[in-house]
Amino acid sequence: MVWSTFIGLISVVLLWVFVSGVLFYTAKRMSIKFPAFPRLWWCVLALTTLPIVPLGMDSLEGSVPKVLLEVEGYVEHSQIKFSHAYANSMNIDTQDLPILILAIVLGVGIYRLVRLGVNWYKLAKHLSMLQSISLPWSNTPCIELPVNTSPFVFGLFKPRVVIPDYFKQLDLNQQKSLIYHELTHIRYKDHIAIVMWRVLSSLFWFNPFVRKMEQAFIGAMECRCDQATVTTYLLNKQRYAATLLAILKRSVAVTDVAGAAHFSSDALTLEDYKSRLKNIVAPEPNQPILLILSLLCICIVLVTLNIKAAPFVRPDDRAWHNPMRDFKISSHYGHISQFRNMKPHGGIDLVAPKGSPIAAIADGYVLVADDTTLPDRFGKVVLLQHNNGYQSLYAHLDSIDVEKGQAVQGGAPLGTLGETGRVTGPHLHLELIHKAQRLNPLAVLDLK
Q1: Domain-terminating residue out of 313, 345, 369
Q2: What mean pLDDT value characterizes the chain?
Q3: DSSP letter, residue 402
Q4: Which of 116, 238, 289, 336 has the highest count of CB atoms within 10 angstroms of its CB?
């Protein structure tokens, strides 16, 4: 079951990355009209998970799907003879490979997180050795750092404003603009939000769009902070914009501290700064109703995608079991041949000696257990109803050991392998159905 679980995880990750990319570029277009709305990016990040999170489970109530009642059937492929002496010695055990890959992915995320924590610890220790500076227009402690960095806020629960060594060279209005900007960050708790984004980017390093969303969030956060600073402290817009340019020129050669709210951030591009300056002088009018409606439409689309993608990325029964121990696959799902009148195979055929025990692939209850409910071609057949809309069919049985309405557990015996119905030899015809649509059983079963 390791490989089937691993493939399911890979499908989920690929779908998440794809949806993240689509939503990122969609939100980037939307942010042109809403440059000072950082909550947009929290919403986008949350929306990326909609197609992959379980939105509820179907009940166990089910019925025989119409696809099994079609009059036009198929003719089974010629079956190979198989004996109990079939050897599995040629199978190479690769069960540890998926676990190793997952361990590497998790290990890289933890390493990046630890490295981030070590850098913060070193900076915190260094700042604790510096003396705080009191400014008459600020009650928040300020610390002068002897480098030409951009001013920033550091600390989660006791934030401090870190100012560069050129701070005293600025005129009074520029000094106030810098401090007021950082105080606005503290009021909005932006220093905490940035830490959260940094942690998410470190853990989910394999999704490049999380990092891009973090950068977009920083841009929107700075635009909001600029607007709020100018409005709250009644600053001159042109002077404030000039201060931003002056600080940018002084700190352009210094790398910012990761996870800190900077006055000028290296996460922003030239276009971001142009947009920021434009937003300072002539801010865009806020129309959150349009943004909310747009996000609502996106939400509806993603919920629909969740429902459609469920059988492929979330084959969600508690545990899947192989229907037999010793077997060989003689015909795969979708295989087309003259034996089936050029129609694709609706399941997989497992060849084993007649009388081999057949087991349920998952917990469920019996919908059909006879040779009369379904078309004659199936012979003696068992149809099980599982959780989340899944059904499994076991055809051409020699004997049936369960009754209609009976609850069964995964791995429990259902009957024995036979050659009833339209067949060319003893085998098990296994189908997996989700909401009346046939699926490839190998998508959830790790058959060897």
Answers
A1: 313
A2: 82
A3: -
A4: 116
Q: What is the sign, positive or negative, of the torsion defined by CA atoms of 257, 260, 261, 266? A: positive
- Give strand pairing partners of 230: none
Question: What's the confidence (pLDDT) of residue 67?
Answer: 67
Are residues 197 and 153 located together in one domain of the fold? yes
pLDDT tens sequence across 362-391: 889 999 999 999 998 899 999 999 877 789
Give the pLDDT confidence score for residue 189 in this predicted structure: 94
DSSP class of residue 120? H
Residue whose tokens read 């339209």: 422
Distance (Å, rounded) from C-alpha 288 to C-alpha 34? 8
Listed as own residue / partner, the contacts of 3-6 with beta carbons closer than 8 Å and 24 or more positions apart are 3/94, 3/95, 3/98, 3/446, 4/315, 4/320, 4/442, 4/443, 4/444, 4/445, 4/446, 5/98, 6/98, 6/101, 6/102
Strands 160-164 and 138-145 turn out to be parallel
Please state, as a whole number, how many other Cβ atoms lie within 10 Å of the Cβ of residue 61: 7
pLDDT in tens, 322-338: 899 888 888 888 876 65
Distance, in Å, from the CA atom of 274 to the CA atom of 281, rounded to the nearest integer, reads 11
Which residues, in sequence order, are CB contacts of 362 under 8 Å at separation 6+? 317, 318, 319, 320, 321, 384, 386, 387, 390, 392, 410
CA–CA gap between residue 84 and residue 353 (Å, rounded)? 6
The domain total for the chain is: 3
Mark whether 244 and 122 lie in a shared domain. yes
For 145, the domain range is 101-265
Joined tokens for residue 217? 């969030």
